[in-house]
Design a protein that fits this description.
The structure holds 2 protein chains of 2 kinds. By secondary structure, chain A is of the alpha/beta class. Chain A has 3 domains: 163 residues, 3-Layer(aba) Sandwich (Rossmann fold); 80 residues, Helix Hairpins (Orthogonal Bundle), CATH 1.10.287.1770; 351 residues, no CATH class. Helices cover 61% and strands 8% of the residues of chain A. Chain A is built from 27 helices and 10 strands. Chain A has a 7-stranded mixed β-sheet with strand order 2-3-4-1-5-6-8, with helices on both faces. A two-stranded antiparallel ribbon of chain A has the order 7-9. In chain A, a hairpin with a 2-residue loop joins strand 3 and strand 4. The longest helix of chain A has 37 residues. The radius of gyration of chain A is 28 Å and the shape is elongated. Chain A starts with a strand and ends with a helix. Chain B folds into 2 domains: 125 residues, Arc Repressor Mutant, subunit A (Orthogonal Bundle), CATH 1.10.10; 70 residues, Ferrous iron transport protein A (FeoA) (SH3 type barrels, Roll). In chain B, 48% of the residues lie in helices and 24% in strands. The radius of gyration of chain B is 22 Å and the shape is elongated. Classes of the chains: A alpha/beta, B alpha+beta.
């Protein structure tokens, strides 16, 4: 059987995932790399005697490696040993799609151009002649529509014949001095599978990651020397490439000017934007929207939680009879961890990611990001930091991983550190279920407020200390579209996967670890040595147990508190104590799972430093606020 | 590599330009010196031009010499090419060194549409350099220049924020500007917006 590996490549919102869904159909074995959209997704499909593996890449505008998405795509392009690629183009903004297609041709990857949104373009009076384009570029061009499945069979046929597509098709020609420089650099490139012309271009475009392919340092000097004569060489390359794309696009496009009333449909989006991107209304609607989402989530989450908890409790209590053996303890505690994970976090996280996916696919999210950028900028965070921070309201672990959408490690770490103050579902459960239940809603809200203030102080502190400068805002606002349910579901699932496969098993393990330590009587031995902490916090010494072991298993914090203090917490703790406990339990990198992901992303030193300092910071805040309140 | 048809197109336009500038019949030899590609291309191009009725070949017996001359239609075509060339050259001369300008013009003129030339003409007739997008007061304009770090520059270009494109300001927000180019909307930071120079756009 033949095996093909085909890369799917295109701009953001070009319809890549819809195409993938149609291409592989429902019988897919999607083997995701864990994480969010900054990873490649692979899906296999058997056709006749060929197994095609599609590699879906994050949406990018050009093949370079200045951002994480671009790096991932570039790596897939050159290291995945692909047979070819499908470049998805947007007929409504064709030049732009061609820009990247031309780069892929420069990389000498056999590619098929799949033209999407042909109907949308027609409505705007734009028609593209595929045959003419095919001749001009020397590669197959197929117009598709993943929604109606038009052109998909043709596309698959073309994929099966991908070996016949010439590697050298249309090539962009640059000015003489650029061509000369390309030749000069090409002669000094090490043996590699990446085409020399492509490397030479990237070097000339001042992409320092490509300097490593040059034979020695002097060549770089030489190349730089060359660039000095023409200081705008890098810019000229982009300009020429785009110019060529525009030239080709013009040749194959027919534009008919439409009468005004035909464009009427556009205006709905314009109207929404007038509100959402308004000076004041935009911010207000964004804020209200998220508050509403939050409210709905808490309400629905609680509802589902209640049902799941009550059914699982009876299940767990059936093990009660065999308690006092080690095996039973391990089993019961492990199951408790599992059940809490499934019943508390799952409905909440699933709902949250579902709503987030909907916002993203309708085009609303990007407007919210623009509004939020006003504040993020003050904190020296780029607009895109909004995504991991929002994801953090679900689960901190995948949110840490989602910091990858940011382009520099510094920005990634800065954002990850703020996740210490973004309450995840488990922490929200502590605030609502313990603080709110025993201390009242006012106290619960003041815990949220304290998190916010503490987070702002932290963020400004980091900004001042490390002098971070954020990447400026340059964001496309996609048109409003009706979201596809399958896409939203698939996306939510990808985001949840981390939680299901990593967090839930670890929750069970955390429960087991706690069970064993408890059996061995080890839990109580930490009470005494750590009593200075509880004294500082003004809490009974035993409360250190839920605080410390909560780090193994955040969802068990509440249960542990009840088990050390008894169920009548409001009698044992004053409202202020409940408040301090809430603060101490929720500020900081929440659990060992988040720590694990942080280690993976930033290395053990940075991860440990962040975790320890954020937790100490939380304890400090809790103690200080307690002292201020008791002063009055 | 450029395809043969592309080269032919270029050579044909060059021939039209050379003969058109002379404005009279031109010795074939002279033209082969001016149009610096292999002679087989020149011959082929001349043949095609003749077939298209744009050019006539005449020969004299003594001294034995061949001449090329434009037909009426050929002269019209040549004028378009020459106009394109001079507009482009003027545009680039204002921005680059003379030598580079001429070279660029020679390459670009074949790849650029008449519509784009109109745009460039407009650009060059506006003597001023264009206002930063942040200070631009009209709703619609023409991007004249983008001055960003190469990383951001490349991203802007590949997104379609390209000099010569029509730009529409749809919203102004406290942290930036929302613009529309070719049906696509973008949110720009003020720091980026002030590096994008925009010209007033004459509505046709």
């Amino acid at each position: 059987m033949k095996k093909f590996k085909i890369l799917l490549i295109g701009q953001p919102n070009v319809g890549k995932s819809s195409l993938l869904n149609v291409l592989v159909g429902p019988r897919v074995t999607v083997s995701n790399y864990p994480g969010t959209t900054v990873e490649v997704t692979k899906a296999k499909k058997k056709i006749d005697n060929t197994e095609i593996e599609f590699v879906d890449t994050p949406g990018i505008y050009s093949i370079s490696d200045r951002s994480e998405e671009e790096k991932v795509t570039e790596k897939a392009l050159f290291e995945e040993e692909i047979e070819g690629a499908i470049t998805i183009a947007d007929a409504t903004s064709f030049e732009r799609s061609l820009y990247m297609a031309l780069q892929i041709l420069e990389a000498r990857v056999p590619t098929i151009l799949a033209l999407n949104f042909v109907e949308d373009a027609k409505k705007k009076g734009i028609e593209i002649n595929c045959e003419k384009l095919e001749k001009l570029l020397g590669i197959p061009v197929i117009s598709i529509n993943p929604l109606t499945k038009t052109g998909i069979d043709k596309l698959v046929d073309a994929v099966l014949k991908i070996e016949k597509i010439p590697k050298r098709a249309f090539t962009v020609e640059y000015d003489d001095h650029i061509e000369k420089a390309i030749n000069k650099i090409s002669s000094q490139i090490k043996e590699t599978s990446i085409p020399k012309r492509f490397i030479a271009l990237r070097v000339l475009e001042r992409d320092e990651d490509f300097y490593k392919y040059l034979k020695d340092e002097r060549v770089i000097e030489d190349a730089k020397e060359n660039l000095k004569e023409h200081p705008k060489v890098a810019e000229d390359i982009s300009i020429t490439r785009y110019g060529t794309a525009a030239f080709i696009a013009e040749k194959v496009t027919q534009i008919t000017h439409l009468r005004k009333e035909k464009i009427g449909k556009e205006k709905i989006g314009e109207k929404i934007d007038r509100v959402l991107l308004h000076k004041t209304w935009g911010l207000l609607t964004t804020g209200l929207f998220f508050l509403a989402i939050f409210g709905i989530l808490l309400y629905l989450g609680n509802l589902i939680q209640g049902v799941l908890m009550s059914s699982s409790e009876s299940f767990l209590s059936s093990f009660g009879a065999v308690e006092h053996s080690i095996i039973a303890t391990v089993l019961v505690q492990g199951l408790t961890g599992l059940v809490t994970g499934v019943s508390i976090a799952l409905p909440y996280i699933f709902l949250f990611y579902l709503i987030l996916g909907l916002l993203e696919d309708t085009g609303l999210l990007s407007r919210f990001i623009v509004n939020a950028e006003r504040f993020l900028k003050e904190l020296s965070l780029p607009a895109k930091a909004f995504i991991p921070l929002a994801l953090g309201l679900g689960c901190t672990a995948p949110a840490c991983r989602a910091t990858r959408v940011l382009s520099s490690k510094k920005e990634q770490f800065h954002t990850a550190s703020l996740l210490a103050f973004v309450p995840c579902s488990s922490r929200i459960a502590i605030i609502m279920g313990i603080v709110g239940f025993y201390g009242g809603i006012i106290i619960a809200l003041s815990v949220f407020a304290t998190l916010l203030v503490a987070g702002l102080i932290w963020a400004f502190g980091i900004k001042k200390m490390f002098n971070v400068k954020s990447e400026p805002l340059l964001l496309e606002l996609p048109p409003y579209r009706k979201p596809l349910v399958e896409n939203v579901l698939a996306k939510s699932w990808i985001r949840m996967k981390d939680f299901v496969y990593i967090v839930i098993p670890l929750l069970a393990l955390g429960g087991i670890a706690y069970g064993i330590l408890n059996m061995a009587g080890l839990t109580s031995i930490i009470i005494k040595p750590l009593s200075p902490i509880t004294t500082w916090l003004g809490l009974p010494p035993a409360t250190i147990i839920p605080l410390v072991f909560g780090f193994l298993q955040k969802d068990l914090t509440g249960a542990m508190l009840i088990s050390v203090l008894g169920s009548k917490i409001s009698l044992v703790l004053t409202p202020i104590q409940i408040y301090t406990f809430g603060i101490a339990a929720t500020i900081g990198i929440p659990c060992i799972i988040a720590l694990g992901i942080l280690i993976k992303e930033f290395g053990i030193k940075k991860a440990a430093a962040l975790t320890v300092s954020s937790i100490i910071y939380g304890f400090l805040i809790a103690g200080i606020v307690r002292r201020i309140i008791s002063f009055f | 590599m450029a395809k043969e048809s592309d080269i032919l197109k270029i050579v044909k336009e060059d021939i039209l330009e050379v003969v058109g500038r002379k404005n009279k019949r031109t010795p074939l030899k002279f033209m082969k010196l001016e149009v610096t590609v292999s002679h087989s291309f020149v011959s082929k191009a001349i043949k095609e031009l003749e077939e298209e009725g744009l050019l006539k070949i005449s020969s004299e017996k003594r001294p034995r010499k061949e001449y090329v001359q434009l037909t009426k239609e050929g002269q019209v075509r040549a004028n378009v090419v020459i106009k394109k060339h001079s507009i482009l050259e003027k545009y680039f001369k204002e921005r680059r060194s003379e030598e580079e300008a001429i070279k660029t013009t020679n390459i670009l003129e074949h790849y650029i549409s008449t519509e784009a030339i109109d745009t460039i003409k407009k650009l060059s007739t506006f003597k001023k350099k264009g206002l930063p997008l942040t200070e631009f007061k009209q709703e619609e304009g023409l991007i004249a220049d983008i001055n960003l770090d190469i990383g951001l520059f490349e991203r802007a270009i590949s997104m379609g924020v390209y000099p010569g494109e029509r730009i529409r300001i749809t919203n102004k927000i406290p942290n930036g500007i929302i613009i529309e180019i070719k049906n696509k909307k973008f949110a720009l930071d003020k720091d980026i917006a002030k590096e994008i120079k925009v010209l007033e756009y004459e509505k046709i």
